[in-house]
Amino acid sequence: MFDIDRWNEIWNALAKNKVRSLLTAFGVFWGIFMLIVMAGAGKGLQNGITEGIAKFAANSAFFWSEQTSEPYKGFKRGRYWHMDSEDLQYLKDNIPEIEYITPKNFTGRFGNGSNVIRDKKNGSFNVKGDYPDYVKIDPVTVLKGRWINEMDIRDKRKVCVIGEKVFESLFDPKEDPLGKYLKISGVYYQVVGLIRAETRININGRTEESVSIPFTTMLQTYNMGNEVHFLAITAKKGVPVSVVEDKVKEFIKKRHSIAPADVQALNSVNIEQQFKQMSGLFLGIQILTWIVGIGTLLAGVIGVSNIMLVIIKERTKEIGVQRAIGATPRTIIGQIMLESVVLTTMAGYIGLSMGVGLLELVNRIIESQATKSGDRTFFAHPEVSLTVAVSALCVLIVAGLFAGLIPASRAIQIKPIDALREE
Fold first, then answer.
1. What is the β-pairing status of strands 159-163 and 121-123?
2. pLDDT tens digits, 177-215
3. What is the pLDDT of residue 272?
4. Which residues fall within 8 angstroms of residue 37, CB to CB, at 6 or more apart?
5. 211 - beta bridge partners?
6. Residues 95-138: pLDDT tens digits?
């Protein structure tokens, strides 16, 4: 294995036609390079999305009302209806598997005009009516002040909590927003908190561009009666969200006289199910990456095998001499296969190194941009694990052995007397 003469022979054989060897090695280099880059890119996409939703309550479901699609109990098809505040207590009393239940209402952005004003500054932002428990489902970081509390709900206080983008639009960078007043859709509210979103899941608009006020205040101030636009529910530990989801639909339909078979009237999204589908998507991306990467790599390996066949043809007389002076078939096979492994391993190692280097460069650029903007991205920390790197190297070695197998078999079929006659 460490015979210097053998290694000199290998080097001379590969260096005899440098252009052909380099072009053949490029196929292996490109295959492993693409495998590493695609695997790292897939991991970067997974990291970016996972980091953006990691803190969101996975055991949650959300509900909202739509027009009915079935006539029921004298009501015509196409009826408009809303959930109401009384549904909360009704669901708590009838579904013991519920851990948290919180409503959420919206006033929306009215046309293209500004709905939030402070002195001479104004902007168009999402206005949401929230409950204290909502942050247990979609958590936030309180940068200053506090979040909405139970006293705000009970007393229907005119207070608000703003997102970072709202602060940047209406306040000076070093200004303290706490205690200041904002005119929201014609009504003044005192700022009691500044928050930053912990997730990228947006419910009717990004948290950074939203103003949250107490739910009860919104109902009273904007004449919404007791209607609920949106309902968020989490299941207790160990209980599948789908179980709670089905029960919520059953009880709300019963209470609001909606046909049990009406699948349009009450829509929902099951976050637990969405997370599982996302995990399946990432698994599919990984499998596709390996299929494409290994396919590209095999194309390069076939090129290596072809060049080794050409080299064998050119070295027919040399192999005949080796056989004539006593070289065994095992020795010939070992040398040919070793040449193939060396070529694939060298090209593959360079491709592996450059692939990892490119991923690290991209990672630093993304981190630099994220630091400047302060926003999360959907692509973060592109990387390949040690397992992937080792697996790629193993694939290279095995591929190199197979690439040299056919040329080696051809070499030992050469008879010494025929090889010596070759010109």
1. unpaired
2. 999 999 998 899 999 999 998 887 777 788 899 999 999
3. 87
4. 355, 358, 359
5. 127, 162
6. 999 999 999 999 865 445 688 999 889 999 999 999 999 999 99
Give residue-wise pLDDT tens across range 23-78.
767 777 887 888 888 888 888 877 777 776 767 888 899 999 999 999 988 889 99
Residue 366: predicted pLDDT: 79
pTM over 0.85: no
